């Protein structure tokens, strides 16, 4: 159970750290920028393709490619919720004030969700709106919000990004330094991009079972796994990370 007093204290700490507030704004701004950029590039490519090639054009997938960058920023936001206290040395004071490691971790997880969710909603909706408007302006096909694929992205996309913020929070507790946690998170989340250069068995495993890959494939409707399995694999992975973070936080000295 997360006490409101502890949650308010976490908000005070979160909002007082300039990096977290700046990162939140940058995430939304970058999402809009990438929505425009990929929408513009995709519209240009569409204009240059043949009629046969245009049949396979996927406006949502083309316009939302920037989500792979947004995930890194959201994960970094989660990292800062934990690592900032280790960097400033205030973690001992926070523990003394809260009176329990589990309660403090739960409060930080709650704070992460409450801050990452609105940022994720804004990022996904801004990227979607900008990309689809840009596609339409360029004469390419686009999707209206009522389309099932667009609705799935707009409703579930922010949830996936928020879960990635919890993944970042777990890394922050596990590694305890911002640089190490951000670097590890970036490498993990971008590994699927490099999968094409791997041997076939490794490539197939990463493309079909890597946690963030399965979630994004389920969002776009291209997952080889049933959606429930794909999302379940992703959620289970984040849950294991959070359990690992609690075990390390509970058993080791600050």
Number of helices: 12
Measured distance between first and last alpha carbons: 23 Å
Q: Provide the structure class.
A: mainly alpha
SSE ordering: HHHHHHHHHHHH
Q: Given the C-alpha coordinates, what overall shape results?
A: globular
Helix content: over 70%
- Largest sheet composition: none
| SS strand fraction | under 5%
Determine the mean pLDDT: 89
Structural domains: how many:
1
Rg from C-alpha positions?
Answer: 19 Å
Low-confidence spans: none
Q: How many strand units?
A: 0
SSE blueprint and pairings:
Blueprint: H1 4-16, H2 18-47, H3 51-54, H4 59-63, H5 67-88, H6 91-98, H7 101-137, H8 148-175, H9 178-190, H10 200-209, H11 211-220, H12 227-251
Helix pairs in contact: 1-7, 2-5, 2-7, 5-7, 5-8, 5-9, 7-8, 8-9, 8-11, 8-12, 11-12
Question: What can you see in these coordinates?
Answer:
The protein is built from twelve helices and no strands. With 254 residues, the chain is mainly alpha-helical. The chain has one domain (4-192). The protein is globular. The two termini are 23 Å apart. The mean pLDDT is 89. It comes from [Actinomadura] parvosata subsp. kistnae.
What is the compact description of this entry?
With 254 residues, the chain is mainly alpha-helical.
What are the defining features of this structure?
ABC transporter permease, globular, 81% helix, 0% strand, 12 helices, membrane, transmembrane, transmembrane helix, 254 residues, mainly alpha
């Amino acid at each position: 159970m997360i006490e409101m007093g502890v949650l308010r204290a976490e908000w005070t700490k979160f909002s007082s750290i300039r990096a977290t507030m700046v990162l939140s704004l940058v995430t939304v701004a970058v999402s809009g920028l990438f929505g425009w950029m990929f929408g513009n590039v995709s519209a240009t490519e569409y204009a240059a393709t043949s009629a046969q090639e245009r049949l396979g054009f996927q406006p949502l997938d083309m316009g939302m490619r920037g989500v792979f960058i947004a995930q890194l920023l959201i994960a970094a936001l989660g990292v800062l919720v934990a690592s900032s206290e280790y960097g400033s040395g205030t973690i001992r004071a926070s523990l003394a004030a809260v009176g329990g490691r589990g309660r403090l971790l739960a409060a930080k997880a709650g704070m992460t969700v409450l801050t990452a969710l609105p940022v994720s909603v804004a990022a996904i909706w801004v990227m979607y709106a900008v990309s689809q408007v840009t596609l339409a302006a360029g004469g390419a096909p686009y999707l209206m919000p009522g389309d099932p694929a667009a609705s799935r992205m707009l409703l579930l996309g922010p949830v996936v990004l928020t879960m990635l913020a919890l993944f970042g929070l777990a890394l922050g507790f596990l590694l305890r330094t911002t640089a190490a946690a951000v670097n590890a998170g970036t490498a993990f989340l971008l590994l699927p991009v490099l999968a094409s250069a791997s041997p076939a068995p490794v490539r197939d495993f990463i493309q079909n079972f890597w946690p963030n890959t399965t979630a994004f494939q389920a969002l776009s409707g291209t997952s080889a796994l049933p959606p429930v399995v794909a999302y379940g694999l992703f959620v289970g992975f984040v849950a294991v990370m959070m359990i690992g973070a609690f075990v390390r936080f509970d058993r080791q000295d600050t």
